[in-house]
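Posting for a labmate who doesn't have an account.
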Amino acid sequence: MFFRRLAVALAAILTCASARADATAEIRQRLEQWTADFNAGRKAEACDLFSKSLISDFRGQGEAGYEARCAIISRALDDSSRKLHYAADIKEIIVEGALAVVRLTWTLKVTPGDAISIEPGLDVFRREDDGQWRIIRYMAYTED
């Protein structure tokens, strides 16, 4: 009986660890896809990373929900006088059940002028009903 319980407990631990690894990989892929979509100017695809229940706070822009944040992305991508290019440096992904927290730093290059903006942030993801991981909350700021 003891060994059976031990085997069941070990199987549960391994299953949980495997699920976390899968979720971590899915979230990393979602962030990489967002980067590719944003850099290619695909507005609708870029907005798909965000949940309809999004609440975001970016220093200098204030709090914004899904519609406002996607409007900001659309205006930025529609501005033909400059090109924006994001790159992500993912520091860590912590997954617990249907929620995950991602600590990362975005680097935004704006041309012409080659301006660089370093934007550390914290994203909270949730696995939504369609199975996709989306950002439900985030906070970010630009470094001085």
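Reply:
Got it, the structure tokens are right above this. The chain has a mean pLDDT of 90.
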